[in-house]
Amino acid sequence: MAEGGAGARRRAPALLEAARARYESLHISDDVFGESGPDSGGNPFYSTSAASRSSSAASSDDERERPGPLGAPAAQPPRSADAQGPEDDEAGAGWSNALRDRPPPHFEDTGGPTRKMPPSASAVDFFQLFVPDNVLKNMVVQTNMYAKKFQERFGSDGAWVEVTLTEMKAFLGYMISTSISHCESVLSIWSGGFYSNQSLALVMSQARFEKILKYFHVVAFRSSQSTHGLYKVQPFLDSLQHSFDASFRPSQTQVLHEPLIDEDPVFIATCTERELRKRKKRKFSLWVRQCSSTGFIIQIYVHLKEGGGPDGLDALKNKPQLHSMVARSLCRNAAGKNYIIFTGPSITSLTLFEEFEKQEIYCCGLLSSRKSDCTGLPLSMLTNPATPPARGQYHIKMKGNMSLICWYNKGHFRFLTNAYSPVQQGVIIKRKSGEIPCPLAVEAFAAHLSYICRYDDKYSKYFISHKPSKTWQQVFWFAVSIAVNNAYILYKMSDAYHVTRYSRAQFGERLVRELLGLEDASPTH
User: Fold this and answer.
1) Residue 505: CB partners within 8 Å, gap ≥ 6?
2) Which pLDDT score is estimated for 504?
3) Is 330 left (phi over 0), alpha (psi -120 to 50) or beta?
4) Are 5 and 230 in contact (CB under 8 A)?
């Protein structure tokens, strides 16, 4: 018994090395948030403990890493018996059991920040890569214009004085502070209670802050040409998108998804049921294209619910063609770059993937017969067999460069991809069940999506907690939250990080103090 335990301990380093090598080959970075904890280490799909190997001790490390012969379907792991049926009408549609190897999309761009920041760069320096002074000055002008017109219509406000650039920075700093304190009411800073902060409260009076909040605008008035429901925030979103493009080159692998923006998890855990019922339903859907190597959000797309029309949010959640519209919008700047895009079931479709392939955009997506547009896919691959196969068994059909994979792991999982060779094998290492064979596309999908899930777990903790009633303001503060997170990612990749080594929370605290003019104060450790 002791000898078996010693053998397992000896195999653990080899398993760790193999997992790390495979993890690095998929271009997944370490935790960008610089925080310790059970969810901030390596890829959770990989286990490095000796216990995870106890059930498969007879399998050698060489056998685990050995790839199958290229172009030889018979050399793949055993597949379910019913998957070996004769060719049917699907052959006429171009789908075949004959698999062929294909090289991965060529990609040479190194990716990363486009500008080298000095070691002395501060938190606000990184933030202003996305929200520079000229954008803030426009907010000052628009806010003062709105205040003037408002008072002309509804009566003079004797307490109002035109806002300045310094005050606008402080106003943003106060709002961003709620992402650190996780307190929904920014006015708690002046309350004297648990969330009060005397050093911040001295910079601006509560009365002055409330006046700026009352009149705050990014675009004061609708132009005659403006018909979009987000006209009050669209110029800021366009400016932010331009800054994202100018500041960062993404890696080859990216993900399209909806980030976790519904509620702060601390609020959900502490609020009463009555408070939850009082919440207004969000009137928009926010989607992003995100670099899966760093977590940097490359592009934002906001779909506004405008009545009960076919483009409303309710329709968007049920119609795959509208999700395809979202995907096209998010990838409009990605053509010709050989990016690999990972998608969820609502976006994955043969039509969309073939359209993207013509633009040199390659995809790997999870399929669902309920949520996905399955037009053009072979029916035999979308129905489950009467007898479940063994874990790790899979069947693949191919059409051109497109592979449709049905893989079993305590349930049937289907993937559509033109980014990975169907004959290349991968493995998923589970802490309890050991190694589960799978096609390389499945391993890549699991690894990249797990990274985004871990990013979202931390990302949601640093959203601005202020909850305005107006939709354009909700979109604005979400966009500012994304800008702050992106700023921290660039900070982590710069020389400045090696000097100060702030965690995400410390970076947020430092940014708030710098925006309020308290830059000489250091963050709480």
Assistant:
1) 35, 180, 462, 523
2) 92
3) alpha
4) no
In this structure, what are the phi and psi dihedrals at residue 111, rounded to the nearest 5 degrees? 75, 165
Cβ atoms 117, 492 nearer than 8 A:
no
Closest CA to 103 of 362, 431, 355: 362
Average pLDDT, the chain: 79
d(CA 271, CA 182): 12
Whether the pLDDT of residue 307 is over 70: the answer is: no
Residue 241's closest CA among 339, 112, 329? 329
Q: How many CA atoms lie within 13 A of 372 on its CB side?
A: 24
Query: How far out from the chain centre does Cα 163 lie?
Result: 35
Identify any residues that bridge with 426 across adjacent strands, giving them in sequence order: 438
pLDDT single digits (tens) 365-380: 999 988 889 999 999 8
Q: What is the pLDDT of residues 417-443, one digit of tens each?
A: 999 999 999 998 776 778 889 999 999
Q: For the chain, what's the residue count?
A: 525
Bridge partners of 340?
Answer: 253, 362
CA distances to 29, 52, 242, 270, 302 from 176, in Å = 26, 43, 22, 21, 21
Confidence class for position 270, pLDDT limits 50, 70, 90: low
Amino acid sitting at position 223 = S
Name, of 167-176, 227-236, 284-293, the range with top average pLDDT. Answer: 167-176
**Which of 124-128, 304-308, 315-319 is the least confident region?**
315-319
CA 299 from centroid of its chain's CA atoms: 10
**pLDDT in the model for residue 86:** 42
Cα-Cα-Cα-Cα torsion 304, 308, 311, 314, nearest 10 degrees, comes to 80
In the chain, the domains with their CATH numbers are 117-223+470-516 (no CATH), 233-461 (3.90.350)
CA separation for the pair 408, 414 (Å, rounded): 9
Percent of the chain with pLDDT over 70: 73
Name the token pair of 132: 């520079």
Rounded to whole angstroms, the Cα distance separating 440 from 426 reads 4
The strand pairing partners of 365, in sequence order, are: 343, 416
304-315 mean pLDDT: 54
Specify the 3-state DSSP secondary structure of 257.
Answer: strand
Tell me how far apart the alpha carbons of residues 114 and 244 are, in angstroms, rounded to a whole number: 10
Q: Taking the chain, what is the end-to-end CA distance rounded to the nearest angstrom?
A: 46
The C-alpha atoms of residue 383 and residue 406 are separated, in whole angstroms, by: 10
Contacts of 133 (CB under 8 A, 6+ apart): 165
Other beta carbons within 10 Å of 74: 7
Q: Is 189 in contact with 196 (CB distance < 8 Å)?
A: yes
- Return the pLDDT at 193: 76
Quote the CA–CA distance of 17 and 12 in Å, as a whole number: 9
Q: Provide the 3-class DSSP secondary structure of residue 445.
A: helix
DSSP secondary structure string, 36-86? -STTSSS-TT---SGGGGGGGTTS-HHHHHPPPPTT-GGGSSP--GGGGPP
